[in-house]
Design a protein that fits this description.
It is a single chain. This protein has two domains: 141 residues, Immunoglobulin-like (Sandwich), CATH 2.60.40; 80 residues, Carboxypeptidase-like, regulatory domain (Immunoglobulin-like, Sandwich), CATH 2.60.40.1120. It contains two helices and 20 strands. The strands form four sheets. Strands 2, 3, 4, 6, 7, 8, 9, 11 and 12 form a nine-stranded mixed sheet that branches. A four-stranded mixed sheet has the order 5-1-10-13. The chain has a four-stranded antiparallel sheet with strand order 16-15-18-19, with no helix packed on it. The longest helix is centred in the N-terminal third of the chain and has 30 residues.
């Protein structure tokens, strides 16, 4: 009997050691880059739109290596299916679309595959969102970037929902994406608070023909404009209630990788 107990105990120890070894090997393979690789991280944010929800089902995210033909050279950054409500990705909120290690070199495109189940919600009613060719060939975004060994390269995809959803004459909602691709290393943010909060204000940063907008939060009046290329902007605050005046703050400087805090912006009564 003592021999059987001892033998069973020895097999248990060996089993635990074997499982532990597998765990260690698995962890090191999934978290460590190979020699000569760098990391790419893609994050998504959204501009506001006149819908209750815009739910996008992303099935795969890929990037394309330069000097390879258009049908090959695609490498996967993420193929885990996930649903994102675009309208929640504002005022500092974001979603990570993918993060992975890639061979050092030049890359030219990003490709999003949008799957079935994507929809918009209008007045409490859910409508299917038609994705033209999105689930077959993917939505291609041209953006040239370089992956360097042992360096993290971060990209921000700014999804302009208001201009990306089209209502056709037969009542069908279609997705025609308008997406800005912004290198995080070259972009900054503008934040602040609108008072009083009952104004339901919209806030826009304007530089030439480029405009980035958001709505102030209804519970505290806070806002944060994301993915702004470094430069000078005019910040326009438009009241959602007619009895309050709009206002514009001119010559607001945005510095890469920094936040410009405008503090509290007070809207006066007319």
């Amino acid at each position: 009997m003592k021999y059987l107990v001892k033998k069973t105990f020895n097999f248990s120890i060996l089993g635990l050691l074997f499982v532990s070894a597998l765990f260690i090997i698995g962890c090191s393979d999934s978290t460590s880059p190979d020699s000569g690789q760098g990391e790419l991280k893609i994050t998504m944010v959204d501009a506001p739109a006149g819908y209750e929800s815009i739910n996008i089902v992303v099935t795969r995210v890929e990037v394309h290596k330069a000097d390879v033909d258009s049908s090959s050279g695609w490498v996967i950054i993420n193929n885990n299916i996930a649903t994102y409500d675009l309208l929640t990705l504002r005022n500092g909120a974001s979603a990570i679309l993918g993060s992975n290690f890639f061979d050092a070199g030049n890359y030219t495109q990003i490709r999003l595959f949008i799957g079935e189940g994507s929809n918009v919600v209008v007045d409490g009613v859910t409508y299917p969102l038609e994705i033209p060719s999105g689930s077959q060939s993917g939505l291609k975004l041209n953006h040239e970037f370089q992956i360097q060994s042992d360096v993290i390269y971060e990209l921000l995809l700014d999804f302009d929902a208001q201009h990306s959803i089209v209502l056709t004459g037969n009542g069908q909602y279609k997705l025609k994406p308008v997406i800005r691709v912004i290198p995080m290393i070259l972009s900054g943010t503008i934040s602040g608070n609108i008072s009083p909060i009952i104004t339901f204000a919209s806030v826009s940063a304007i530089s030439g023909t480029d405009t980035v907008s958001t709505f102030a939060e209804i519970f505290d009046g806070s806002f944060k404009l994301m993915g702004l290329m470094h430069g000078i902007y005019n910040v326009k605050v438009s009241s959602g209630i007619a009895i309050y005046n709009d206002t514009t703050i001119v010559n607001v400087a945005v510095v890469a990788k920094q936040n410009t805090d405008l503090g509290t912006i007070n809207l006066s009564l007319k």
